[in-house]
Amino acid sequence: MKQYPISNIRTLSDTIREFTLATPAWELAALTPGSHFRWLMPGEIGARRYSCVMFTAPATALTFAIKLNMAAASSQYLQSLKQGDKVSLEGPFNHFPQLIAPAEGRDVVIAGGIGVTPITGIVARLIVMGKHPECHYFTESRAQAVYATELTNLAGSSFHLHSSEGQKCDLAELLGTLQPDDRLHVCGSERLLSAVLDYCDDYQFPRQHIAFELFTTPFTKADTTEEGYEVEAAESGIRLQVAAGQSLLDALESAGLEPLYDCRRGECGVCALKVIEGDVEHRDFIMTPQEAATSGIIYPCVSHAKGCFLKLEL
Questions:
Q1: N or C: which end of the chain has fewer CB within 10 A?
Q2: Cβ atoms < 10 Å from Cβ of 11
Q3: Contact (Cβ atoms closer than 8 angstroms) between residue 115 and residue 216
């Protein structure tokens, strides 16, 4: 954990505030496109994860654009901050896969809402590599398209803004143009990401050519179960109960087990466990439906038993 003084604050829209932190150059050199930090909030608010804004590669500033919801204690804290205040951060971390970009194929970039923040670095990196990414930025309104000007300056005529007030885009039609050698970079809401992955599966576009990050808060209701179930860790000889409203990963940790994990959002694949017995309700973003049906794998940060019992190799 390290404290950083706030060197500048800008209001980008009625709900989005930008923070730039005073940072030595050697720390900026460690940032990679898609990097994020954990902001440690005071009291019982806990930690929040925010991605870096990077319009150059390498980065020249440590900047974050954060969407506020004033009903949340974390947003109230962020709204109270002023220039000169210090904030406590951990990082950088990066869960955004960096796809190798050979000469063949296009790079198509899709950002949804505040998910544009890590996308800025992806676009900057591709341009430094001599690529010409096709950028699509989906927002509710032009007023919320906070970095449209900067992305236009980077990508030129290959940048497209889609909002209810202007140009609209049929996502299925857009993804239907993808070719097997293309690469797709996506960050946005769970709804956007699910739609993208579903369409790509329908078009048989390879998952290994999709780099994505889900822009949401960990431990959402979707990660928990409405009904409890029993789990047996075969190698440890431990039996435990997953309570209603509890994630499987949390239950395993509470029982004294130490499964590996990283993102806790069903994206990175680190927490994968082998299922010996029982059916799984898959909620991860890693496997296609076809792979999930035959994999014998569960990602306990988001997935659950479909019945009342699971036996795991743990």
A1: N
A2: 10
A3: no
Confidence of residue 111 (pLDDT cuts 50, 70, 90): very high
The answer for 166, left when phi > 0, alpha when psi is -120 to 50, beta otherwise, is: beta
Segment 240-258, tens digit of pLDDT: 999 988 999 999 999 999 8
- State the number of CA atoms in the 13 A half-sphere of 197 facing the CB: 23
Q: What are the angstrom distances between the C-alpha of 247 and each of 19, 96, 149, 250, 282?
A: 33, 23, 41, 5, 13
Beta strand 210-214 with 183-188 is parallel
CA distances from 21 to 7, 16, 24 (A): 5, 16, 10
For residue 241, report the phi and psi dihedrals to the nearest 5 degrees. Answer: -110, 130
> In sequence order, what are the beta bridge partners of 188?
214
What is the separation, in whole angstroms, between the first and last Cα of the chain? Answer: 31
CB 187, CB 210: distance < 8 Å: no
CATH homologous superfamily, domain 2-94? Translation factors (2.40.30.10)
Four-residue CA torsion sign, 239, 245, 248, 253: negative
Question: How long, in residues, is the chain?
Answer: 314
Query: 229-313 has which fold?
Result: Ubiquitin-like (UB roll) (3.10.20)
3-state secondary structure of 175: helix
Reported as a single tens digit per residue, the pLDDT across 256-298 is: 998 888 778 887 788 999 999 999 999 887 888 888 888 899 9
What architecture is the 107-214 domain classified under in CATH?
Answer: 3-Layer(aba) Sandwich (3.40)
